Amino acid sequence: MFKVDREICIACEQCIKDCPVNDIYLKEGKAHIKNEACIKCGHCIAICPVKAVSTDDYDMNEVIEYKKEDFEISPDRLLNFIKFRRSVRRFKDKEVEKEKIEKIIEAGRFTQTGTNSQDVSFTVLTKDLPKIKELTYEILNKKGQYILDNMNDNIKHLEIYANLWTRMYVEHKKDPQNYDRLFLNAPLAIIVSAKSPLDGGLASSNMELMVDALGLGTYFNGFFQVAAEDNKEILDLLNIKDGKKLISCLVIGYPNVKYKRTVPRKEADVTWM
């Protein structure tokens, strides 16, 4: 429940004006939260100039007071950071520290969600990654064989992937230590799942930025999603809850490569109206 300390409240009405669901009003000259339509977004906590608003739904010790030097990033530096990021496919044989994994999760946890649903979940794969890896190779091989055995005009566009998946499986079975085109022998993967693809996608994007800020590298494993999205065995192993979809798989580790500059991109496709 969200509440206002009436002894501290100065009735400035900032929380009333900023509440997205109109759940706050003045009662006897002080702000009062009805907790009827409240979506627990915390705008009232963030905007109150005298810290009169609190909640017992979340840990108030997580609240950080705004200081410009700690919170602001210049637009140019942020844009350069985004431009410089690369999908990393070469990793060192080095474990990722738990403290860094927790910061990546935090970046996802604090990402905005529709109606503040906070429905994004995270599965961290370290010790069970080899098991998931082998299962993924097997599933993709079966998918590839099925496509090749039942080839027709409707699935002709999948032939290139089917050949790739079956070839990857054969090569991996020959030399599992040195041939890993799926997880690239990275020590860590984080699976993001959510009811809303938008919520999960936004969280994944913020997590990727944190990965880079921590001196790590990542790439989004799309082939794993193909293998897992309709496979109950993998979804159960990952503890993907009913009603949630697997949104992304971030393969993470210490980069065994150093990039020197940004790269060009196509012009933005923009419609000004």
Fill in the keyword field for this structure.
273 residues; alpha+beta; Alpha-Beta Plaits; 2 domains; four-stranded antiparallel β-sheet; two-stranded antiparallel ribbon; 10 helices
Summarize the structure.
With 273 residues, this protein is an alpha+beta fold.
Describe the structure.
The chain is of the alpha+beta class and 273 residues long. It has two domains: 2-62, Alpha-Beta Plaits (2-Layer Sandwich); 75-273, NADH Oxidase (3-Layer(aba) Sandwich), CATH 3.40.109. 38% of the residues lie in helices and 14% in strands. It is built from ten helices and eight strands. The longest helix has 21 residues, at 129-149. It starts with a strand and ends in a 20-residue tail after the last strand.
Count the DSSP helices: 10
Overall structural class, as computed from helix and strand content, comes to alpha+beta
Beta-strand percent range = 5-15%
Name the CATH class of the largest domain. Answer: Alpha Beta
Order of helices and strands: EHEEHEHHHEHHEHEHHE
Q: What order do the helices and strands come in, and which of them pair?
A:
Elements: E1 2-4, H1 14-18, E2 24-27, E3 30-33, H2 43-47, E4 53-55, H3 68-71, H4 75-84, H5 98-109, E5 121-125, H6 129-149, H7 159-174, E6 188-194, H8 197-213, E7 217-220, H9 222-228, H10 232-237, E8 245-253
Antiparallel strand pairs: 1-4, 2-3, 5-6, 6-8, 7-8
Helix pairs in contact: 5-8, 6-7, 6-9
